[in-house]
Amino acid sequence: VALNSTAGLARLANASHPAAFHHIATHLETQRNQAFCSAATSVTILNALAGAGVDAPVDGFYAPYAYYTQRALFENACVRRAKTHVYRVNMSPKFLARGGATLEEWALYLSCFVGQAGVARHHADANENDANAFRVVVKATLADAPNAFIGVNFRRVEIGEAGGGHMRRVRIHAGPRTTAPIGAYDDAADAILVMDVSRYKYPPVWTPLRALHDAMLAVDEASGKSRGWVVV
Amino acid sequence: VALNSTAGLARLANASHPAAFHHIATHLETQRNQAFCSAATSVTILNALAGAGVDAPVDGFYAPYAYYTQRALFENACVRRAKTHVYRVNMSPKFLARGGATLEEWALYLSCFVGQAGVARHHADANENDANAFRVVVKATLADAPNAFIGVNFRRVEIGEAGGGHMRRVRIHAGPRTTAPIGAYDDAADAILVMDVSRYKYPPVWTPLRALHDAMLAVDEASGKSRGWVVV
């Protein structure tokens, strides 16, 4: 169910957990290129956390204003020291552009930013946490917005979208995968509003929670593990 | 009143003209640099108009998917032929980066895209159209969303924001000025939700319609005329 439909808007208006939506929507970024879904998701969530005391860096394009950008993210010294899971090379825009990040790689570079201001962070593999556990985390996190947000790393095909799109041109990492922030949850429909950062392809969409969990269960060929979620 | 406040969200939930909001929010772009407010506003509105039959170009970064970007906007042949008002030179990213666009320059390059699919377009100077006329246009346009949207070109100081920001570094065009899409209108408060594309500085904010009209009345030093609005 597309958000921009009568049913989609009605579901948001009556959702049991709508509070993250306006914070995510206000800062939602289009990924810079077809492999930067994790970067755009990170930037969206980190900017949404400004009210929770997460300081942003100053990107030269916007000086003197502080704002997370997909460029400034990788100028961070901690990120540049982070060893990627697959190749044991350092994280960089070039590495990410080749094939995107696995769940672990994403959580690794994200942890450079969310240690500050007492903001907790954890990531979870879907195969170690079933749909019921995921639902509990979704509800708890969205109830805590704007002090916490949640993002997911999943395979598109399980939620009815064309597979992996942005991974077709590069085969180094293999495994179509995407990353997106969650905007809302509705108990009655047991559905999650996924706010895709591939805005050139997919509008925000209500997805059954179980379908999204299935989409996270799919093994990522690059890591040999399932996908999963990150709570920031 | 910030959108991300209890009062701001309540106003949106009960607004008399809320229909444009989700379309604009879904595609809201951060301006690429501090002079690209008109470009980011154009891209946001043009992408929101996809459902109304406005075809997007394919930016190489997102091929094969079609989506307006602040880069692809200026690769358009019609835009590259457009003579800017002030210098009688052709419109280009370089021209825009020097000092942004006046209302006329913005309307000129925007007209390259909105002639298609029968989408009407007009722009209006604030000093030729009083606040009552503006209110009529706002209501009619927002009632027609997602087939029509409205953007404003204004001076920040009148709506209580720090003046001009992005114009401080460049003095060629002079005159602090910004451009932004409108997300909603509420009759009861007579207020407009301005969705700023300088997301590194300003969140979406409810602004009294009369203050916004005053902000459009201010003469733009570059053109010698008032600012105003564009309906797409």
**Strands across the major sheet of chain A, in which order?**
1-8-2-3-4-5
Name the biggest interface.
A-B, 32 and 32 residues
Architecture (CATH level 2) name of chain A? Alpha-Beta Complex
* Level-1 CATH class name of chain A: Alpha Beta
Mean pLDDT of chain A: 87
Taken as a percent bin, the fraction of beta residues of chain A is 5-15%
Estimate nothing, just give the exact number of structural domains of chain A. 1
Total helical segments of chain A: 8
CA radius of gyration of chain A:
16 Å
The global form of chain A is globular
Task: Explain the layout of strands and helices.
2 copies of one chain form a homodimer.
Chain A: H1 6-13, H2 21-27, H3 37-48, H4 77-81, H5 93-99, H6 103-114, E1 122-125, H7 131-143, E2 150-154, E3 178-186, E4 191-194, E5 205-208, H8 209-217, E6 219-220, E7 225-226, E8 228-231
Structure commentary:
The structure is a homodimer of 232-residue chains. With 232 residues, chain A is an alpha+beta fold. Chain A has helices at residues 6-13, 21-27, 37-48, 77-81, 93-99, 103-114, 131-143, 209-217, and strands spanning 122-125, 150-154, 178-186, 191-194, 205-208, 219-220, 225-226, 228-231. In chain A, the strands form two sheets. A six-stranded antiparallel β-sheet of chain A has the order 1-8-2-3-4-5, with helices on both faces. In chain A, a hairpin with a 4-residue loop joins β6 and β7 (225-226). In chain A, α2 crosses α3 (37-48) and α3 packs parallel to α6. Chain A is globular and about 45 Å long. Residues 164-175 of chain A have low confidence and may be disordered.
